[in-house]
Specification:
By secondary structure, this protein is of the alpha+beta class. The protein has 6 helices and 9 strands, in the order E-E-H-H-E-E-E-E-E-H-H-H-E-H-E. It starts with a strand and ends in a 7-residue tail after the last strand.
């Protein structure tokens, strides 16, 4: 299972991941679940704040060439900076005519920075949401059979993964868990000429992807 973090992918064995989850005592799982939900609430408020700031900047663009809109130091007001004349003002300059050079929203450094923050928030939200799902399952483990508990945990881990690496035949182990997760974006079969058609159908069945890439050299061996 590959989980993308920063610029690299973190390799995690599915069985090891589930075993570590099952070792977590129920009281600790409940405490951690409360912490994760609190973090999700803070993250949601931060996303709303960023959306609001980007929307405010969008409402005052485009600007004439050489201008930039920024938030003031306290973050409450918009400042308009004229880099040509090297001055700033609170009032929005006149909107440039259609034929005149202009500066759009995505050319504003602060707008780009806030969009980057939104992307990072989305990645963090995805990570916390997956953890919340697994902790919720652990908190109700007393009401689940052992096989059902492991299958639900596996489904949660797979749903939160960016990459799933498996052999064609061992992919059959993931059929039950993958059926509870969202469809995969794409299936890539390496060394495809060495695989049989029935074995190739195994990952295609549970991945439920509309795209499949077969990679290999049919003259390699």
């Amino acid at each position: 299972i590959g989980s993308a973090r920063r610029e690299t992918s973190c390799e995690v064995d599915l069985d090891v991941r589930i075993r570590k989850l099952l070792e977590l005592p129920a009281p600790e799982a409940q405490v951690r679940l409360a912490e994760v939900r609190e973090a999700l609430g803070k993250l949601q408020r931060r996303v709303s704040e960023l959306h609001g700031q980007i929307r405010r900047m969008q409402e005052v663009t485009p600007l004439p060439h050489g201008w930039e809109v920024r938030f003031s130091a306290d973050g409450g007001r918009l400042e308009f900076h004229n880099h040509v004349e090297r001055r700033a003002q609170w009032v929005r300059p006149e909107v440039p005519p259609p034929w005149a050079p202009r500066v759009e929203l995505l050319e504003m450094p602060q707008a780009i920075a806030r969009l980057g923050d939104l992307i990072r928030c989305a990645d963090r939200w995805w990570e916390l949401q997956g953890e919340e799902s697994r902790l919720s399952i652990l908190c109700k483990r007393d009401h689940l059979r052992a096989a059902e508990l492991r299958e639900q945990l596996a489904a949660s881990v797979i749903s939160n993964a960016h990459l799933v690496l498996t052999t064609l035949n061992s992919a059959a182990r993931l059929r039950g868990a993958a059926g509870q997760s969202a469809p995969f974006g794409v299936v890539v079969v390496d060394e495809a000429p060495q695989a049989t058609e029935p074995s190739t159908l195994v990952p295609l069945e549970f991945a439920r992807s509309r795209r499949c890439v077969l990679v290999g050299d049919d003259r390699q061996l």
